[in-house]
Amino acid sequence: MKPEALILQARGTNRDHDVAEALTLAGAEAHFIPLNHLRMNKTLLADFQLLVLPGGFSYADALGAGKLHALDLNSYFNEEISAFVEAGKPVIGICNGFQALVKSGILPGEGKEEKRMNGSGATLTFNTKGHFECRWVTLKPVSQTCIWTKGLEGIVECPIAHGEGNFQTSESFLLPTFIENDQIALAYTHADGSSADGEYPYNPNGSILDIAGICNPRGNVLGLMPHPENHIYPHQHPQWTRGVKGNSGLALFENGVRYASQI
Amino acid sequence: MPIYRFATQMLQKDSCSFGLLSAPHALGFGRLQRIDCLDLYFIEGQLSQEELQQLALKLLSDPVTQSIAWDELPAPHPNLEAGEVIVEVALRPGVTDPVAAEIVRAAHELGLDGVHRAATGQRFILRFNESIRLSASQSVALSAPVSAALLANNVIQHWKIGSIEPSFPEDVESSGTVESILICGLTDDKLLALSKDRRAALDLAEMQAIQQYFIKEGRDPTDVEFETIAQTWSEHCVHKTFKALITIDSGQLTVDGKTTNRQPSTVNSLIKTYLKSATDKIAAPWVRSAFVDNAGIIDFDDEYEISFKAETHNHPSAIEPFGGANTGVGGVIRDVLGVSAKPIANTDVLCFGDQNIPFDKLPEGVLHPRRIMSGVVAGVQDYGNKIGIPTVNGAILFDEGYTANPLVFCGCVGIAPKGKHKKNPHVGDRVVVLGGRTGRDGLRGATFSSMTMDAQTGEVAGASVQIGDPIVEKGLIDVITRARDLGLYNDITDCGAGGLSSAVGEMASRIGCDVELKNVRLKYAGLAPWEIWLSEAQERMVLAVAPQHLTPLQELCDTFDTEMTDIGAFTRDHRLVVRYNGNIVVDMDNEFLHESIPQKQLQAIIETPIFDTRVFENRISNIKEHLLNLLSSPNIASKASVIRMYDHEVQGGTVIKPLTGVKADAPSDAAVIKPIGTKGLKGIVLSNGINPEYGKRDAYRMAMAVVDEAIRNAVAVGADPERIAILDNFCWGDPNRPETLGSLVEAARGCHDAALLFRAPFISGKDSLNNEYLGADGQRHAIPPTLLISALGVIDDVTKSVSMDLKEAGNGIYLIGEFAKEQKWVPAVPAITPQVYRALHRAITDGLIRSAHDLSEGGLAVAAAEMCIGGRLGLDINPPLSTRDLFSETTGCLLVEIAPTNIARFEETFKDLPIKKLGQVITDPILKLNETTITVETLTAAFNTPI
Fold first, then answer.
1. What is the pLDDT of residues B126-149, one digit of tens each?
2. What is the pLDDT of residue B891?
3. Which of A56, A179, B194, B703 lies 20 to 30 angstroms, CA to CA, from B6?
């Protein structure tokens, strides 16, 4: 049976159709659920096998990207989302969805109440360049714990489109534990797959350790700034006219959908 | 109630101050050493210490990257170090503050119910060179110009050295007062004085027509009625100049050295004579709607139609660049929503003054072009990115003629299933307003855009500035596309210039309506009835909804957090009736309002074209130096720093992107889009043509050339030349000056002839006149006559599209098209050009073309250089070419790259057409032009380093 994916539409979500296309190609049944509908029927979430927080500009980035969306997640769906995550079902937050996952504390931690609202010591802040930027990047799948990146061979190429994608942690954040837990899911690299080492524009936003995506310790929740959903067809690649054959963003969704179908 | 002030500051490097500091140095404030930026939040409410802390840490700051401090107002002055000055900035009362609204909502969501109101602001800490010891008055003297020029815009913000007071909108009840405008007994002089007093921009004949109508009605108009007429009859809304009866003076005309005697002649409506008539003569079966709706519409495939519209937002962008450009984008997106389509791509063409003009050379009251550009770009970026529409095509041009009057063209493409768009309100339908609330913003924008600006414009037109909220408009897209599919409305239009008066008036023009202004939802109380009716507050659409569909529409609106208001009904009595609290404030006959505007009578003089004196006065002695100078000149050099700030990937359909090639840093000729959800691989092509330099010299040939350029760009990436529709956007000076009108007539004539030559119909258009600025020096500063042609094409298979970067060493390079021998005059478009484009399209369809690039500014040499940059490959151009061949500008020509195995088929495809082999692609990254060799690295460096 096809796994059913819930694509949560917040106020200002805009890459919902893009990710629906990717999930459909990967073999899932994609459903758009406006946040207000879910609020009226919270138990609905449990009927799905996969949860997607798509990209966009929820609440126009007021008070920081993803912040008010995160507040909604914690105020309205705290129990339901915790249960979904604890059931081991796959969750993906892309760009604005990633920002909301981090600012709600669902990532990188275990989602404990006291960790919520940036108490986790990790955040996504303004790009070092200080402005929004749209360009293609190269990613290396790192984590073998993360069900989305596990076993992916080769690099993933896809665009970024954000102004606040710079992953930073506070001094109190346990970075060694985070790394040991295999929570770095995706890292920015040079075009040949070698480490970007903080070099712009390969690392486009100044994230520590070239972090492009992270997962929870269990590995079922992935958050990432880049948009693999915008590289699911060869003709989306910037060099397809030069004979480059690609759709390397799709593998990530195939991983998640395959995992969801086995739950 | 106490008011608290929270100040949030970045702990580490603050990119805001970094960005700000580059500007003052460029603008001559060299003594400024640092600017720190803090966000200020003013919260009014009854809150405990614990609640204040919660607010600070959970809502108003990010504990990982920011620090936050708060105190109760009046607060002590922050401690400063030597050489520091504090400047605080806040919005003026009544200016929309979406963040403040979110703070109150989110605070309540957190359970902090004591939060009553909020306002936002900014604090800047200026640090001057420490060697200066500043007295209080010196600090003011140094900080004031920086604040005015850089930190605040007086039109929407106020600033203060020291602590600023927040301004909360005051809850004032509207008096509901309606004034009677005495008009019936006025003399002609007094009529004109009245028009001027109320900034109505109406001329004597128009004022007399209003007077006669009300004499017949036996009463004077109300202020609401007078303002309604002024908006409805504004240049912006009815295009009086384009519909005028124009008399063209006789005289001698010299073109290409040949003198002819012109007989006096007349043109009855430029639109009918030159634009609509071209579309009618072409009679393309794939045009679904031209000139009648909010946007033009053509067929896409069996299932879908695509729509396209381009607008200008010049005057608002001159006085408040961010807000002006922001709402320009928002406005054109609503045009596409107005034909029930989902917006899928944006285009933006921007014209600015010289970025390095010294401050003392600026006309009084004019913002520096650098500030205008950064504000406009930020405004375009903010709206397009946040609403989730890719910005895929555009241009940026610089000319000193745009110093006081920048041009901001915003275009939007939409897609909709066929047969779902309805445009026919029924008697009994409700008049429903969707989206944003109504405030005092944007009052009299339609008439404002029809007047020449002067040094005071910024102040008196403060109310004309509109502030956008893209998230509200995203909600409109979500609601309207679903309501369309469910058939919930019978008519739809956007609230643009003239606000409700124009939108409702237009929808009711064939039947009638009766609306109640008291029902309109307001941002704040206190608006007079005419202000509610005329407000150009953003993000509003008006729908005609059958009563039984109100409930399902309301449910959709609730789902997507969109407000919906029923303000009245469509009637059968052919009158526009507007009430306030039940009392009639407008009661006018539709026929008078929409049909009785007197036709304007205008005089035009057509001047002899001027020849080019720029390039060839001084012979080019060094080809390399000249080419590198061209590549780094502002109009040719890379626009990557701007393009990368726009999201051009959202919606996943961008197949040919604005930047292309190995390093994605070469300029594409056009964009190709494969829309999500359509079957097969059919795509949309978007391109543009614009050339103000030609506009200054020969308006007729300029128009021909820019139509050609737009079509050539589209065909270069693979558009079918038989399926291209075009839009016109005329930006001109004051049409009451016969010479200015003469060049407008010539441009329109050029549009007509070019459209027929290429069989490319106009499907929509727009004009923005009076782009002039009356400086305090008494001089008029007019823009160059500027025509933007935007092209919308179709490509059957996007995987056949062609990019402009060189692909492989060994391939041949050909020049196709008739290479102009003319150097002095604006080049004419050779008659054979459409055949060349059709042959090129056949060759692309057959897979014979590896890359193609059009020859435009900078001529053949620049085109060749850009192709090398794209492919990081060399090019050996072997036939001897003169400097004129290399650099002169032509029409109808492209460079194409052909693999050796396809040369024979290519030459066969172009049999009897003008083609010339120029050389071949080489592995060595070197461009060889005769004796000159330049490395591709050098070319790239020049192109990527604008002067």
1. 887 765 666 767 777 778 888 877
2. 95
3. A56
Q: Nearest-CA neighbor of B431 among B344, B490, B372, B359? A: B490
CA B947 to CA B938: how far, in whole Å?
A: 15
The per-residue pLDDT for range A176-203, each reduced to its tens digit, is: 999 999 999 999 999 999 999 999 999 9
Tell whether A164 lies on the interface with B, counting CB pairs under 8 A.
Answer: no
Told to judge if A227 belongs to the known catalytic residues of this protein, a careful annotator would answer: yes
| Domain-embedded: residue B594 | no
Note the helical H segments in B274-391: 277-282, 314-319, 321-337, 369-387
**In this structure, are strands B812-816 and B915-922 parallel, antiparallel, or unpaired?**
antiparallel
Minimal C-alpha gap between A230 and chain B (Å)? 5
Active site residue B236: yes
Measured between CA atoms, the residue of chain B closest to residue A22 is B652
Total domains in the fold of chain B:
2
B126 lies in some domain: yes
Residue where a domain terminates, one of B105, B138, B161: B161
Known catalytic residue at A229: yes
Q: B644 contacts in A (CB within 8 Å)?
A: 133-135
Compute the distance between CA of residue B834 and CA of residue B711 in angstroms, rounded to an integer: 10
Three-state SS sequence of B648-708? CCCCCCEEECCEECCCCCEECCCEEECCCCCCCCCEEEEEEEECHHHHHHCHHHHHHHHHH
The distance from CA B122 to its chain's CA centroid, rounded to whole angstroms, is: 28
Question: Does residue B688 sit within a domain?
Answer: yes
Among B239, B313, B368, B648, the active-site one is: B313
ipTM of the assembly? 0.96
Phi, psi of B158 (to 5 degrees): -120, 155
**B714 close to B680: Cβ distance less than 8 angstroms:** no
- Domain range for B676: 623-729+786-943
Which residue, among B85, B241, B266, B302, has the nearest Cα to B769 in the 3D structure? Answer: B241
- Structural domain for A167, as ranges: 4-262
Q: What CATH number has the domain bearing residue B658?
A: 3.90.650.10
Helix A250-262 and helix A16-25: axis angle, to 10°?
Answer: 70
Which pLDDT belongs to residue B201? 86
Q: What angle separates helix B550-559 from helix B470-486, to the nearest 10 degrees?
A: 140
Amino acid found at A237? H
CATH at B12? 3.30.1280.10
CATH code of the domain containing A126: 3.40.50.880
Residue B16's Cβ-side half-sphere holds a number of Cα atoms within 13 Å equal to 19
Which ranges of chain B have pLDDT less than 50? Answer: 455-462, 617
**pLDDT on residue B466:** 72
- Cβ within 8 Å of residue B900, ≥6 positions away: B810, B811, B812
User: What does each C-alpha distance from B540 to B203, B251, B362 come to in angstroms?
Assistant: 30, 50, 37
3-state secondary structure of A21: helix
Output the six-digit token pair for B834: 């459409």
Cβ contact B64–A18 (<8 Å): no
Rg (C-alpha) for chain A, rounded Å, is 17
Please state, in angstroms and rounded to a whole number, the distance separating the CA atoms of residues B764 and B287.
11
Write the CB contacts of B596 (distance below 8 Å, at least 6 apart in sequence): B209, B213
- Please state the domain count of chain A: 1
pLDDT score at B612: 67
Of the residues B141, B161, B181, the one at which a domain ends: B161
Does A56 lie at the interface with B, CB-CB under 8 angstroms?
yes
pLDDT recorded at residue A220:
97
Look at residue B18 in the predicted model and tell me its pLDDT: 61
Query: Quick check: A96 and A54 in contact, CB under 8 A?
Result: yes
Strand partners, B287: B298
Say if CB B923 and CB B874 are below 8 A apart.
yes
Question: Is residue B579 assigned to a domain?
Answer: no
What pLDDT sits at residue B462? 46
